[in-house]
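Minutes, methods subgroup
Present: GH (chair), OT, SY

1. OT presented the first of two proteins processed in the latest run. Sequence and structure tokens recorded below as shown on screen.
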Amino acid sequence: MLAIHSLASDFSHTQFVGLWEENSNFYRTSAPGAKVSFRISGGKLALEMAGNSYWQVILNGKHVKKILVTERAFYTITDSLARGNYLVEIVHCSESLPGESFVYGVQLSKSEEFLPIVKSSRRIEFIGDSYTVGYGVEALGPEEGTVEETTNTTKSYAYLIAEKLRADYRISAFSGRGLVRNYAGIEPKWPIPELIKYTVPGMAASDKGGALRDFSAWVPSVMVIFVGINDFQGEGEHPSQAEFVKAYREMLSKFRKNYPGVKFLLVATKVWPEDLLIPAVQQVFEEENKAGFKDIAMKVVYSENTALHGHPNERSQAEMARILLPEVARLGGFLSR
């Protein structure tokens, strides 16, 4: 027998990590890496969900399966667990852009119970594109599998860093989108600075509108910003370095206003065919320093782009996480466990 719990009732036993819209009847997200987690004593756990996306189930830190959610239904997360203490995490490991995903309620075996869950005081926000999403990371080659099947944000550098530091996080990342210009000029109305204004960017990109984000409701200690790859790739005219630097510095200024006291880690990588991103981000870093800002650091990373459509593979994502993690920890004051 299963007991049904509505999200409209007491849901204090649940942790929602990432960017979510809370409604009286459901929780809604489009963000990669958005997570629902419980501690349970055993038995069977199912979530009532809807949308068109993949979710990674993690049990006590072990990846056990991926679930494809389509129509509204109860999806089994765990089945017949022996009595014990289990941390169950269900992570939105694909991307809803455009689109949206829903969690309506939860079922747990009547003989079992929810256990207290500890929430982290550490907060990190990641701003990025497909590299940050973990686009195609599970593909064994550049043309192996589909985007939906091979994308897994739990294997992106962003998720790996947050998990290693045991931090609460938000991943505001959008495949194909840039700071000034999107890849090959696609969807010019929706570059990253416009998408991050919304709680559920996938709704906005679907021209459904949606609530504007309340930045004061969740303030990170550190922001990791890895944008610009799509500005300088694809057909069509790319922004000038001056235009990109101006937009980048304006974005940082807005984040400082929204997140008082936040620290920034600017990330860049070599962009094919010309190495235009690294010098542009370096200029941003230098101009911010000259302006007197001491809340900022910069790192350059490189990757082996043998996964789907020339994206970083699992090994490269893990290596980027290894390189960036110490700097994130330093900026956030997370050095002691």
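2. SY then presented the second protein from the same run.
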Amino acid sequence: MENTDQNKLARRRLLTTMSVAAVAGLAAGAGPAPAQAQSQTPGFQPARHDKDAWLNELPGSHRVFIDSSTMAGGPAGLWYANNMISAHEEEYDGEASDFAMVVCFRHMSTPYGFDDGIWAKYGAIFNRSADPAPTRNPLSTPSASSGQNSIASSVARGVNFAICGRATRRFAMAIASATGGNADDVFAELTAGGVPNSHFVPAGVLTATRAQEYRYSFLYAE
């Protein structure tokens, strides 16, 4: 009987020792990964390009990029920008200068980025369905579609504009075809006639993605 009791006691000690060792092994495996393994999975860092640097240079504690690509979206984008600024001023006791605010005119909304002088010459081409043909940038005057905001009043609040260079090139080609002019000359004229606070960018769709890499909130106006 004594030998049997001693054998049971020995087995219990063996099982206890094995359990402690197993727990210790699990605890060691749950610890931080070795420094060498961690260094093999660095965080993503987007590449930077000089053509996008202006996005990072705009002052403000809030960054917003409003994209538009249609004739209706341009005025809506202006409305959205000013609505956000007004809500921030009224409800957060903030100021317009707290925003790095960019409204993008691309695709069919691109002509909103051209001043009244350009529209006086080419308004009939920008909006062929209008009768009579527009002779001023529609956003030069407050209207219901823009929430009674204009380019000038938006600029006064610090709003910036990104204008699609590729779409501008297409409009230049259409103007040259309609007038018998030179597309390169017309393109130079259009880019010299941008609205205040405007930045002609390589492509509006590309800048919309680059802005998000600079931590701009994104909103689409239609």
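Chair's summary of item 2: Residues 14-39 have pLDDT under 50 and may be disordered.
Next meeting: continue with the remaining queue.
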